[in-house]
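I hope you will forgive my troubling you with a question about protein structure. You will find the record immediately after this paragraph.
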Amino acid sequence: MRCVFMILLALTLCACTTSVRNWTRIDGQTTDIAQDKARCQYEAKAATASYHSSPSADDKTSGMGNAVGDGIVIAQKQVELINDCLRVKGYVGQ
């Protein structure tokens, strides 16, 4: 039952964080958005690479719950970091 709850929670939280799909430059410059976005994704993954929660128990259920929770937190943080990085580079999301 706890596993089902964790999966439903994961799906619910994944819907809360969204990545902006269309980015444009504020100043109108034509730059390579794909290259800037790839660099921001790389930096976001590097910034969250060492994140993990402390295991609270040694059983498989708890470990799986922690892994699911960590994955959600990491994904949300990466989306936030990518969006912030692109804004700093002069892009605006639509």
Q: What stands out?
A: The helical segments are 2-14, 33-48, 60-88. The first helix runs from residue 2 to 14. The chain has one domain: 2-93.
